[in-house]
Amino acid sequence: MSYALEAKKRKFTRVLESLSKPLATSDGGAKPIKDPLMAARERLADATTSPSIKRVRVGEGIVDNLTTKTTVSRILRTTSSSTNLRPNFVPWDRERFLERLETFRPVTRWTSQPAPINEVEWAKRGWTCTDYMRVACVGGCGASIVVKLPEEVDDFEDLDSEKVQERKEVRQKVVEEYRKLLSDGHKETCLWRNKSCDATIHRLPITNTDTAINALRERYLKISKMRDQLPSNETIELPEQLSLEEIISQLPPNFPESEKGESSQETNTSGKEIDYRSFTFAFFGWDVVKDGSSGLLECRACFRRLGLWLYKPKEEGKEPVYDKLPVHTEHMDYCPWINGTAQSGTGTTTDKPENLLGGWQILAQGIRTKHRRRTKAATTSSESLAVDSDNLSLDSTATDEATQRAKDREWWSKLRRVREALHVKGPRKSVSGEK
């Protein structure tokens, strides 16, 4: 046996002996022998509960770096908190993207910027708004950028055309530099530097019509609870090509009570009248604010807020601040509820914007499609019942005829038997050759 192996065996034997060896007391006696495993547990417990103990002697060896109670508690706190932390680099997570986008909502922090460097582009690249016109990386690289553009050329109408054009070019160059900083502003080791969110990250989850109608139902129910704060029908403006009355007439029969899917919607009909104003706001993506503030609606895709009191007459009889509320154009320009490019997620300039549908248009198409299918299914069911009824009548007639024929055959059979019984045989004719 090798010397190294012999040495390890001796050390192991000494450790076992030290754990089971009686410990001397202050009066010269000896403590009773304990179970080795129990002794080891007690010594480890003493090491973690006594701040003054930093090392424990085991036999002839020394086990160093046993942590004190303070160190252990710090490690436990760090471990427990780190398990609750979410990863910062998740470019595929739409919820986290919307969280970053929402930080740009307060007007005290951010003002509108050109499309190449608007808040959506910063949020796609892992930036959040932390202070007035200041963005910071959520990935922990520590990068921070102050966004400041030259003033708009519209403020210099008294200047000649050359200076105006020069200022436009300068502003465009600054915008281009900030566009580069969307990625280059991160540090070299930051993952957001080389990867951003996909173009479809802002798309509304309304491709599944059942899911879209259920979400519409939830928004409607919440908004209808504050209908007394909504503007009048005359104040609300809709797109010219939309007939909201037609959309309401094509809703599932018991909208909005049912929450169990299309099957229950077809079997139960409540006949409850839909509140036009509440449905209008819900249909165009508006919802009550998360904090429950009174008189406010918000969009959960662009985080634009509507102060409903601005569109209602004041108590003193004064006119409202705004006499019209176009519910579709109050969204931010990049909102997928009205922006077909954002909803399609193509992100290309070859597609014509007029050919791409916004969120409310896709929702309207889905409601119409479900209505057509529901109507067709009902028509098909009625036709099937009619055909089954006709078949039943034909089957009944055919059965009656077959029964009559069977009775006729039985009657003729009886008649033949009677005739045979009554038939009298004549004299037997002689055959030639007989004598």
Automatic annotation (TrEMBL):
Subcellular location: Nucleus
PANTHER family listed in its UniProt record: NUCLEAR-INTERACTING PARTNER OF ALK, ZINC FINGER C3HC-TYPE PROTEIN 1
Region Disordered: start-end pairs: 252-271
Main subcellular localisation: nucleus
Protein name: C3HC zinc finger domain protein
Domain C3HC-type: 91-233
Keyword Aminoacyl-tRNA synthetase appears in the UniProt entry: no
Keywords for the protein's UniProt record, in alphabetical order: Metal-binding, Nucleus, Zinc, Zinc-finger
Keyword check for 4Fe-4S: no
Organism listed in the record: Talaromyces stipitatus (strain ATCC 10500 / CBS 375.48 / QM 6759 / NRRL 1006)
Single GO MF descriptor: zinc ion binding
Leader sequence residues: none
Annotated NuBaID C-terminal domain residues: 279-375
InterPro entries: NuBaID_C, NuBaID_N
One Pfam family recorded for the sequence: zf-C3HC
Lineage: Eukaryota, Fungi, Dikarya, Ascomycota, Pezizomycotina
Gene Ontology CC: one annotated term: nucleus
